[in-house]
Specification:
It is found in: Endosome membrane; Golgi apparatus, trans-Golgi network membrane. It is a peripheral membrane protein. This is LAME_0D07382g1_1. The chain contains 29 helices and no strands. The chain is an all-alpha fold. The protein folds into 4 domains: about 110 residues, no CATH class; about 130 residues; about 160 residues, Tetracycline Repressor, domain 2, CATH 1.10.357; about 220 residues, Tetracycline Repressor, domain 2. The N and C termini lie far apart (about 120 Å).
Length: about 800
């Protein structure tokens, strides 16, 4: 392959050159020959480059260099021309610049000498006027002189100018001294009439001269204030008897005389915008506050005297109130002005303790009041409003005493504890004694109703206002502080007494009126009842509900809030329903021991069917009577339509459960499958075994095990779920203790066969609740049931009205 080819392979050539070992001896000559050939090739390559390109490049470089040199020459010419032009212009304007400088210097010199002339003239004018004490005539010249001397401050290094400035400064000092001397004489004599100066000369002359010098003005004011208060500070020193805490009122009286004397005799000699009365009062505040800090620490930390402390505090508050009225509270807006009463802040716990006597006297007065004659138409004790007015007053006074800071937070905590204590006292000594004791014999129901409503409405008002009081206290606390609900316990106590009063109205006043109807129910010959008309007891109940003079009718419109009226109506409905159910259970419920064939059932199944039909008719009568009763009372209390609808819905739901139960009493037991179909339809296919057994017992089914098993087989055939998954029938759930008592009695049967049936086939076991109930001899409910205590106390906060007591009057 040719060596000049691009893809030439040198390996064959190298193998031929170095093919033998002897060729290595000639390696040096081979390298030398190769290097010589390399240099030769490089020379040939260089020689082979085109010569015309090199010449063109050289030519272009020469042309560029020539153009650059030409450009530099032109720039040099322009620079020389510019410098020559500048020199020419400078020569032309040289005289003009000198003329401007001369004119400016001349103008400044003229102004300087004019000002100097005026300064000299006004200086001598002021000097002459000062000698004659014509401050008012001196005012224009003095103002101009004071302004000009400021102009010459920059030229004090000139001896003559420095001399004149010094003379003016001495004149200003002399003027201040002369003004001070005049005021010294004036404040000493305290009468402008005894001097040769009128008020205008001092106010518009002497004082106006000092307006040009803030330092001189401040010195005169401080001197005048100290001069006016000098005698006071000398008389009322903390180490003298006159300056003691007991004589604090004398200090205030003396200062009032000083202030009034200044206003009547000297106020017109000072400019109004200087606010001299406020400055005098501010200084007095500072002096008295400093003295009080010493006196209070000395007299209260060792043997605190509450009487002395309260006297001093009351006197101070009255004085500060007087000053506030006199200056339209302007003093409170001044910076760095601390109230005198601030000195009492560390000891204000004594002030709260002093209010114990006030509250004790109020409680005694409340106890002595005739509660009925003192109460308003809303049946709220006026003493309760007076109690919270007192609290509001104490809170306002506390906030006036302590404006802000940790001291105020601590006082509010103390005040909260104080309020809490007396709220409990009011509850225990005023409200609770008005309640009729439980199980007490009531001779006068009208009076008992009035006092009970008085307690309920007043306790509700207090409960509402307690929360407003708490919110008001929290409002004034620092952002990071909380009261930790100090009133929760007492709020619950007031809620509990509301609940107790409601229970008293229902169980002690309303329930006895219903007991006659329940006695009529018990005295009815139910064995031979004929379904023809309403039973006698229903007529009695309707008459009670319609009686315009009944306690029930008189009670409902006298609640302080409509909410309680509706709540009371709902509880009356429950009371009537529970009484009705109690009578039914007492009539139908079997008595233990169960499954004793020697003790036959009181009522036969057929008799229970008649009873069930009669009770259904009576139930409809009661339902209509209660609906009419609710309508009448809704008109009486002007209740809302929504509340009226809710109470009617409550009636319908209560009687719907009762009607379903009474229908079960009328279903025949002859054919188990048919009975089971009817039972499932009426109970919405409820599979609760206890409910099923209880219904059969109430229906009067004899204790014949075969009949029970036959009915149970029908019950099981349709039972596709575990009975434990089904709750009691709603009617039995309403009186669950009675159902559990029945379960206990049923599971306590002594007969082994029955016991096996109950525990294995019916899967019923004894209950602890039933054991406790059976101790009463098998009775489920008393003929006149008493409602369980109401749980209103947890909901009182939700019942509050929006019109807050503590938000009245701003």
């Amino acid at each position: 392959m040719d060596i000049e080819q691009p893809n030439y392979d040198a390996e064959p050539a190298l193998k031929s050159i170095l093919g033998s070992s002897s060729s290595l001896n000639d390696i040096d000559e081979l390298i030398h020959a190769t290097r010589a050939l390399k240099f030769q090739l490089e020379d040939e390559i260089v020689a082979g480059l085109p010569e015309d390109k090199s010449n063109d490049q050289t030519l272009k470089s020469s042309e560029l260099l020539s153009e650059f040199q030409t450009l530099l020459a032109e720039v040099g010419q322009i620079t020389s021309l510019s410098q020559a032009t500048e020199r020419t212009i400078s020569q032309l304007t040289k005289d003009i610049s000198q003329l401007d400088n001369a004119k400016r210097n001349l103008s400044r010199s003229m102004t300087f000498f004019q000002n100097l002339e005026q300064l000299t003239v006004f200086y001598f004018q002021c000097r002459n006027l000062l000698e004659s004490k014509d401050f008012k005539g001196m005012r224009p010249s003095y103002n101009v002189m004071s302004g000009l001397v400021t102009y010459f401050q920059d030229y004090k290094s000139v001896e003559e100018i420095g001399y004149i400035v010094a003379k003016v400064s001495r004149l200003q000092t002399e003027t201040l001294g002369e003004v001070k001397k005049v005021y010294h004489d004036l404040l000493t004599s305290r009468s402008i009439a005894k001097k040769d100066f009128d008020e205008s000369m001092l106010r518009d002359g002497a004082c106006a001269l000092l307006e040009t010098n803030t330092g001189a003005k401040a010195k005169l004011i401080d001197w005048a204030v100290n001069k006016l208060l000098y005698e006071l500070t000398e008389i009322f020193q903390v180490d003298d008897e006159a300056g003691s805490l007991e004589n604090l009122s004398r200090r205030y009286v003396y200062f009032k005389k000083v202030l009034n004397s200044f206003n009547s005799e000297l106020a017109q000699t000072f400019p109004k915008n200087w606010d001299m009365p406020i400055k005098i009062t501010t200084k007095f505040y500072a002096i008295t506050g400093k003295d009080l800090d010493i006196l209070l620490k000395r007299e209260l930390e060792v043997k605190p005297s509450i009487d002395v402390f309260m006297g001093a505090l009351q006197t101070t508050l009255e004085f500060e109130k007087y000053i506030g009225v006199k200056f339209a509270n302007r003093l409170n807006t001044e910076d760095n002005v601390e109230r005198i009463s601030k000195s009492f802040e560390p000891y204000l716990v004594l002030w709260i303790q002093h209010q114990e006597s006030l509250m004790n006297s109020k409680i005694l007065n409340y106890m002595a009041e005739d509660k009925r004659s003192q109460s308003s138409d809303s049946l709220v004790l006026p003493s309760s409003a007076d109690l919270f007015r007192t609290y509001r007053s104490l809170l306002s006074q506390t906030l006036e005493l302590i404006q802000s800071g940790d001291g105020r937070d601590q006082m509010l905590f103390e005040l909260a504890a104080f309020f809490n204590t007396w709220l409990k006292t009011y509850l225990e000594k005023i409200l609770r004694p008005l309640l009729v004791p439980p199980n007490a014999r009531i001779e006068n129901k009208e009076e008992a109703m009035t006092y009970t409503l008085l307690v309920l409405n007043t306790a509700d008002y207090c409960s509402t206002t307690i929360r407003q009081l708490e919110d008001k206290l929290i409002e004034y606390l620092s952002d990071d502080k909380k009261l930790n609900q100090p009133f929760d316990k007492v709020h619950m106590q007031y809620g509990a007494i509301v609940s107790s009063a409601m229970d008293l109205l229902l169980n002690s006043l309303i329930a006895p009126d219903l007991s006659f109807a329940w006695r009529e129910f018990d005295n009815t010959d139910w064995k031979s009842v004929q379904v023809e008309d309403y039973s006698r007891y229903t007529v009695t109940l309707r008459e009670i509900l319609r009686d315009e003079k009944s306690i029930m009718r008189k009670t409902i419109p006298r609640f302080n809030r409509e909410l309680y009226s509706w709540n009371f109506m709902g509880k009356v409905i429950e009371l009537i329903c529970d009484g009705f159910v109690s009578c039914i259970f007492k009539l139908l419920k079997p008595r233990p021991p169960f499954a004793n064939l020697n003790v036959p059932r009181t009522l036969q199944v057929s008799q229970v069917v008649n009873i069930g039909e009669q009770l259904q008719l009576d139930t409809e009568c009661l339902r209509q009577a209660l609906i009419q009763w609710a309508d009448d009372l809704a008109d009486m209390i002007n209740g809302s339509d929504a509340s009226s609808k809710r109470i009617k819905k409550h009636i319908e739901q209560s009687f719907e459960q009762l009607t379903s139960f009474l229908k079960l009493l009328t279903v025949p037991l002859d054919v188990p499958d048919i009975y089971q179909e009817n039972y499932a339809a009426i109970t919405d296919n409820n599979r609760n075994t206890l409910s099923w057994c209880f219904v059969l017992a109430l229906k009067g089914l004899p204790w014949e095990l075969a009949r029970w098993k036959a009915l149970h087989r029908a019950f099981q055939d349709t039972n596709d779920k575990n009975a434990a998954d089904f709750p009691l029938l709603p009617f039995f759930a309403r009186c669950k203790p009675i159902a559990l008592q029945f379960q206990y009695d049923l599971t306590s049967i002594n007969d082994p066969t029955w016991q096996k049936f109950v525990r294995e086939e019916l899967s019923l076991t004894p209950t602890v609740e039933g054991s406790a109930s059976s101790s009463s001899g098998g009775r489920s409910l008393s003929p006149t049931p008493r409602l369980a205590p109401s749980k209103l106390n947890g909901n009182i906060k939700n019942l509050m009205s929006n019109a807050g007591f503590f938000h009245r009057g701003g």
